[in-house]
Design brief:
Elements (H helix, E strand, L loop, with lengths): L1 H11 L4 H21 L3 E3 L2 H22 L9 H15 L6 E3 L1 H17 L6
Antiparallel strand pairs: 1-2
Helix pairs in contact: 2-3, 2-5, 3-4, 4-5
Keywords: Membrane, Transmembrane, Transmembrane helix
InterPro entries: Phage_holin_4_2
Protein name: Phage holin family protein
């Protein structure tokens, strides 16, 4: 636990615009893949994909900074999974053209978790 806190503290100084842009790009790619494979999860166009990526990245960043909870689906077990589902589901109310059902958010969160596990770095 102490190592995790120390690593998080050490990484806070590493914040850069390049890191944010890579995270946005990763989120956009993962969302597009997830929308393709997940029933009940659809993105109408490229603009909706870009805006949804920005919204999800911003909400994830805020939750991580305020609560310390890693909102990736497998980041903190069931809590991270529930937070990930909530972020995906409530984004539909903020982004026009981003439509997801509750089951779509649950399945999408699982797909995102699998993609995150297979890729280096972290998208969501």
């Amino acid at each position: 636990m102490a190592d995790e806190t120390r690593n998080r503290t050490n990484n806070e100084g590493n914040f850069s615009i390049g890191h944010v842009l890579l995270r946005l790009l990763g989120t956009a790619v993962v969302l597009a893949i997830t929308a393709f494979f997940t029933p009940g999860f659809s993105i109408a166009n490229l603009w909706s994909l870009i805006v949804a990526s920005i919204v999800i990245t911003a909400i994830d960043y805020l939750i991580e900074k305020v609560t310390g909870i890693d909102a990736s689906p497998f980041g903190r077990g069931i809590v991270g999974f529930i937070v990930s589902v909530a972020i995906i589901y409530f984004t539909k109310y903020l982004v026009q053209g981003f439509d997801v059902t509750l089951w779509g958010a649950i399945i999408g969160s699982i797909v995102i978790g699998i993609i995150n596990a297979l890729t280096p770095g972290r998208a969501l």
